[in-house]
Amino acid sequence: MVAKVFIDGEAGTTGLQIRERLSGRRDLEVLSIALDKRKDIDERRRLLNAADVAILCLPDDAAKESVALVENERTRIIDASTAHRVAEGWVYGFAELDLRQSALIAAARRVANPGCWPQGAIATLRPLIEGGLLPADYPVSVHGISGYSGGGKAMIADYEQAGADANPFMPYGLTFKHKHLPELQRFALLTHAPLFSPAVGDFAQGMITVVPLQLWTLDKIPTGRDLHAAIADHFAAIREGFVTVAPFAEEERSAELNPERFNNTNTMRLHVFANDARAQASLVAVYDNLGKGASGAAVQNLNLMLGVPADTGLAA
Asked: Under 8 Å CB-to-CB from 53, ≥6 apart: which residues?
């Protein structure tokens, strides 16, 4: 049976990327709203209720409105906004979170697509906290850089118009109230919100997240190989996942740490770097903010919900 999918907000950056990834698929029909009816609440209600799966690519308030417009028990929802990521009754859409998460997503009526920034930090921290190598109350710091497409149409326009004058490295979130903090804290299993310092770079898409660790502060100090083994074992056990772990190596720099390396794929690559003599380490994740960080993750979740292979329509 062909599943009907409606992308509410298909003209935005995430919506367009999802639509592209679904193009040519014969196992589903993409319902589309006419240009002149995108703000017509009755037409949106009709399409939302006609869909087997609705994917919301909207600001938070509009996403909440769309959820309220669904009047049947059949339409399932994937929400790409921040509105429901820590809400009761919603399943978090990071399929590689643990061994059970993909099955929870597959059975869910309501799935909250994860934010781009939290995924890399969650992927590296959660296995260490679950494994007892880091305490849940560890004072975590997270920083990194993302392409300007993560800021949506307005930021894309600003960077493209600026040309050679565009800011090559622009830190933001300097009030430390970033909207992704609640999900990062909850799903990394932290008891305190991390100190999160994101930045935008002068490139369109791709990202790197970095979690530095002062291991000497711990009563029991793990080695770099201990950290790497815990993370590698976690993801090796997850079937049909898109998260891979680079071999543990001592190196001063790596060509693999390029934020654009996995653009247009759903791959996330994790690295562990350490100096055991100093009891310091750094956990690094490289992935596409528009792929695994947003649209790719949404399609992966859609595939799980439809019961088709998780990599359908996705480049790894």
From this structure: 3, 4, 5, 6, 75, 76, 77, 78, 302, 305, 306
Residue type at 216?
Answer: W
Nearest to 116 by CA among 144, 153, 88, 86: 144
3-114+294-306 architecture in CATH?
Answer: 3-Layer(aba) Sandwich (3.40)
Asked if 231 contacts 124 with a C-beta cutoff of 8 angstroms, the reply is: yes
| Model pLDDT for residues 212-247, shown as the tens digit of each residue | 999 999 999 999 999 999 999 999 999 999 999 999
Residues annotated catalytic, as ranges: 116
- Hey, where are the domains in the chain? 3-114+294-306, 116-289
Mean pLDDT, the chain, integer: 96
Q: Which CATH architecture has domain 116-289?
A: 2-Layer Sandwich (3.30)
